[in-house]
Write a structure and sequence with these properties.
It is a single chain. The protein has nine helices and no strands. By secondary structure, the protein is mainly alpha-helical. The longest helix is centred in the first third of the chain and has 36 residues. About 5% of the residues have low confidence.
Amino acid sequence: MSEALPLLALTMGLMSSFHCIGMCGPIALALPTHKKDKFQQLVGLVAYNGGRTLTYASLGLVLGAAGSALVWVGYFRYLSILSGAIMLIYVLWPKKLEAYLHVPRFWQHMIQAVKKKMSTVLRSRNPASFVLLGMLNGLLPCGMIYLALMSSLATGSMTGGAIYMLAFGIGTLPAMLAVGFFRQLITPALRSQMHRLTPIVIGLTGALLVIRGIMIQYPSNVTGNNTEITICHGK
């Protein structure tokens, strides 16, 4: 069942990428590559989106490690069920969930610092700075990213969390690359259609996490009273 999570992450990234166009697309369009040839534009966009995906994978690695700790203490099944339940609540009652979720003040200060750094990096003409810009952009708040990170936490392993977020980031690449070359084809109607499909993928992921949590069985302890000792009798 866990093998399906990366595929769902890839699909979630693809569907949510049309939301990303509205949030992150303007940054991609602001890259100082519009006066260069198509190859240089492609390199700049790949570097920017590669940096963004790298941040996602790194965050998934950290949260996957936290999830693995819960596996050791025996609370992983509850983590999986809780993560899936929150995703289902987001699909069914998004406004109610958003009313209870608030960005902590320290996180707001960090976001402002990230945005300030991004504005400085954006003025650089060095292609390597595009990677840094993408990495910083991956730290900006986004509801879809938070849901994906919650799923990476529920993978219960560092590798699983990193792979999940890597797949999510790869899923966002087609639309984010296309916005730099074929933005006229990504119409509001297309974005609206894809946006309607996103809750379906989120709901499937949430249901999978809940079912997996319910099906997890921990091995029962074997007591010393049930242990039989074989005695060999020699002649």
